[in-house]
Task: structure prediction
Amino acid sequence: MRCLVRGFWGPRPEPVEPLAGRWRRTLDGLTGLVPQAAAAWSQIHANGPATAITPDGDALLGAVRAAQSAADWSDLTGTALRLVGTGTPGWEVEVSGVAGGTPEFLLQSIMVVIHAPDGAPVPEEDVLALLARVWEPDFGDVSDNDVLDALEDEAGFSVEDPAVGRVGYLSPARAALVPAGLEAVRQEFPGGGELLSIAAPGDTAAVVRACERLREAGALAPLPRPMDRAVL
Result:
């Protein structure tokens, strides 16, 4: 079983220390939520083999600094890391992101892919809540290939369009536009963002309906290009 949890936002420049702190809090949170997949961590590199990394502040600070020392690094893009956690056979979690930059057209992002044995419970809603607290995204989702295909084929959503999956997160300005009567359980976050529990796994039709209503209400409007802020 494969579960995809994501968050997206616009330009938000950050020094290496707070950026590494977000990564540390992410790994700490995932260790608590999916300990089966977080016994050991490795860093995946664009070139060369993966290397072991400890999920502590010093190691992650070094990883962020090393990424920014690459010849092709630019603050217009952001700083990318890709980490993989393993543990119990059948479990794996991959965390990748591009953050801390000032892009005008490409969204910053954090993505968690959880591989688990079929039928094993995965706390996907809690993982999205973790990403919302740590990264303060503009929008986020819990999704899978079936949901993404349905949104593209049945509702005309493209890869760059804001959307929600069977669980979604909306930043405060987006949450304020959620229409009354939307079929979702709404959980408010401190500061005004909201987590929306929309559908059970496999119910792509409910996700499509919710995204269409949210788009009509303006809650899924894209950030203006060129982007000049992190959230709507």
Residues 16-33 form the longest helix (18 residues). DSSP finds six helices and ten strands in the chain.
